């Protein structure tokens, strides 16, 4: 790393001691929360030169304040299945930081949801939202509910029970949830309907990711995947490359994955593999996206059924094996820590030139280190997948105006936001001595925007 401009040996030592002290404090206060600690460590490692240049952040205790959520809400969710049996799940909402605007972040329904995962997602959301340049703070929510195999009525009853507890803590100017894993426009619709009933008011801006008939934005479903590819295209262009003809693998087969594939194909890339939680398909001639959409969006079937329509493709059990498929570009879009150091080494050995994250923290730290050490272009999640929350903020704007933009208008605004995020990451990395390291650039740029706001707002 270059010597940080404007910093002396003493200020660098003070900055290092401060960051180390706060991280040790976080570990003591959050024992066993591995995902949360991983996210904190990744951010902290980038920030040492920032504190060397800005001792006012140390004076004002910015890190100590930033790692503590402003509010954590945990509650029981009781619901009844179609046979009349009562079930109990845990619901969560972490309202992490409102310096830049109302809390903003998705709701995740998945059996893995716990305190650590919700806090890691909420902490990451602070910086991701800051990078968009839009006036939104960071939050996250969810429940350890598994929607797989549930009927529409069971999902509706769960969503209604979930929001019956949460509604008093959210609002268009307070906290604006959206979808995430296991939560799409169907679930958002059920929650919005229950909120409207309890609130006795039509406040469309309280949720984003809604169906357009409920005030949702056109282009929201596609936004995270499209934004990921817009960011990747900028990353390639900055190194004199383009996506034309690039063999691409995409983990997952939800909205992010499907629309990343769609946009990448539009840029001339060839998608050779995609996956779900059971396994992956490999189609060297190029995945047929229409078939994937039919299976996943219409029929809700497993990805292995792709072979019913394309018998020349190959299906392999165990979704982690997708990283063994040779490719130029890898887009991990499934879930956290899905790509390990072993998988990263295999990708590098097979000639990958770029990795961009569509999911939240899908690469573990050892994998990221390998990519950076080997000169692989790496697009970190908080920058590369910020397109979804950017369009969510646009949905909030449209709701406030009682107005709707066309899909083309939303897509163009999204493209410009992703270009700005990439440029900000590149320039910030250069400024603080991390030339070419977009992870450090994203961390520092997001942090500085929030930290400057916290300084001007005093103790809160």
In short:
By secondary structure, the chain is an alpha/beta fold. 48% of the residues lie in helices and 15% in strands.
Explain what this protein looks like in three dimensions.
With about 450 residues, this protein is α/β, with parallel strands linked by helices. It folds into 3 domains: about 10-65 and about 450-455, Glutamate Dehydrogenase, Chain A, domain 3 (Orthogonal Bundle); about 70-205, Rossmann fold (3-Layer(aba) Sandwich); about 220-380, Rossmann fold (3-Layer(aba) Sandwich), CATH 3.40.50. The chain is about 50% helix and about 15% strand. The chain has 16 helices and 12 strands. It has helices at about 10-30, 35-55, 55-60, 60-65, 115-130, 150-165, 185-200, 220-235, 255-265, 290-300, 340-350, 365-375, 380-385, 385-400, 405-430, 440-455; strands spanning about 70-80, 85-95, 105-110, 140-145, 175-180, 245-250, 270-275, 280, 315, 330, 355, 375-380. Strands 9-8-7-6-10-11-12 form a 7-stranded mixed sheet, with helices on both faces. A 5-stranded mixed sheet has the order 1-2-4-3-5, sandwiched between helices. A hairpin with a 5-residue loop joins strand 1 and strand 2. It is globular and about 65 Å long. The two termini are about 35 Å apart. The mean pLDDT is about 95. Belongs to the Glu/Leu/Phe/Val dehydrogenases family.
Would you identify the CATH architecture of the largest domain?
A: 3-Layer(aba) Sandwich
**Global geometry:** globular
Order of helices and strands: HHHHEEEHEHEHHEHEEHEEHEHEHHHH
Q: Number of folding domains?
A: 3
The largest pleated sheet is described as:
7 strands, mixed
Task: Kindly report how far apart the N and C termini lie.
Answer: 34 Å
Query: What fold name stands as the CATH topology of the largest domain?
Result: Rossmann fold
Q: Which class best fits the helix and strand makeup?
A: alpha/beta
Strand order of the largest sheet: 9-8-7-6-10-11-12
Radius of gyration: 21 Å
CATH-assigned homologous superfamily of the largest domain? NAD(P)-binding Rossmann-like Domain
Total number of strands = 12
- Total helical elements: 16
Tell me, what is the CATH class of the largest domain? Alpha Beta
Q: What is the helix fraction of residues, given as a range?
A: 40-55%
Could you name the ranges where pLDDT drops below 50 across 5 or more consecutive residues? none
Q: Beta-strand percentage? A: 5-15%
User: Could you tell me the mean pLDDT?
Assistant: 95
């Amino acid at each position: 790393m270059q010597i940080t401009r404007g910093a002396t040996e003493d200020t660098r030592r003070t900055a290092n001691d401060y960051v180390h002290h706060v991280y040790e404090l976080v570990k003591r206060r959050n024992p066993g929360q591995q995902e949360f600690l991983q996210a904190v460590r990744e951010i902290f490692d980038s920030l040492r030169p920032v504190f060397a240049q800005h001792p006012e952040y140390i004076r004002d205790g910015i890190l100590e304040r930033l790692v503590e959520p402003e509010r954590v809400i945990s509650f029981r969710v009781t619901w009844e299945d179609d046979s009349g049996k009562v079930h109990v799940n845990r619901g969560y909402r972490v309202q992490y930081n409102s310096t830049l605007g109302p809390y903003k972040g998705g709701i995740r329904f998945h059996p893995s949801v716990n305190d650590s995962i919700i806090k890691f997602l909420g902490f990451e959301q602070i910086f991701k939202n800051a990078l968009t340049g839009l006036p939104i703070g960071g939050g996250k929510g969810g429940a350890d509910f598994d929607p797989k195999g549930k009927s529409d009525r069971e999902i509706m009853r769960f969503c209604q029970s979930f929001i019956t507890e949460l509604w008093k803590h959210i609002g268009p100017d307070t906290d604006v949830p959206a979808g995430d894993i296991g939560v799409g426009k169907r679930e958002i619709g059920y929650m919005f309907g229950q909120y409207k009933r309890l609130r006795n008011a039509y406040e469309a801006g309280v949720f984003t990711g809604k169906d357009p008939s409920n005030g949702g934005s056109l282009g929201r479903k596609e936004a995270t995947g499209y934004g990921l590819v817009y960011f990747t295209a900028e990353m390639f262009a900055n190194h004199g490359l383009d996506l034309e003809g690039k063999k691409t693998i995409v983990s997952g087969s939800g909205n992010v994955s499907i629309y990343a594939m769609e946009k990448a194909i539009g840029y001339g890339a060839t998608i050779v593999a995609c996956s779900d939680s059971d396994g992956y398909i490999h189609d060297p001639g190029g995945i047929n996206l229409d078939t994937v959409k039919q299976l996943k969006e219409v029929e809700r079937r497993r990805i292995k059924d792709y072979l019913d329509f394309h018998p020349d493709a190959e299906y392999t059990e165990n979704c982690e094996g997708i990283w063994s498929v040779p490719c130029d570009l890898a887009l991990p879009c499934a879930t956290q820590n899905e790509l390990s150091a072993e998988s990263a080494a295999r990708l590098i050995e097979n000639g990958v030139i770029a990795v961009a994250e569509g999911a939240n923290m899908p690469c573990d730290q050892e994998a990221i280190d390998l990519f950076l050490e080997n000169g692989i272009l790496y697009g970190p999640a908080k920058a590369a997948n910020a397109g979804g929350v950017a369009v969510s903020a646009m949905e909030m704007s449209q709701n406030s105006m009682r107005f709707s933009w066309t899909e083309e208008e939303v897509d163009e605004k999204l493209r410009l936001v992703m270009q700005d995020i990439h440029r900000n990451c590149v320039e910030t990395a250069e400024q603080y001595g991390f030339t070419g390291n977009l992870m450090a650039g994203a961390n520092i740029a997001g942090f500085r925007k929030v930290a400057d706001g916290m300084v001007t707002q005093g103790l809160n």
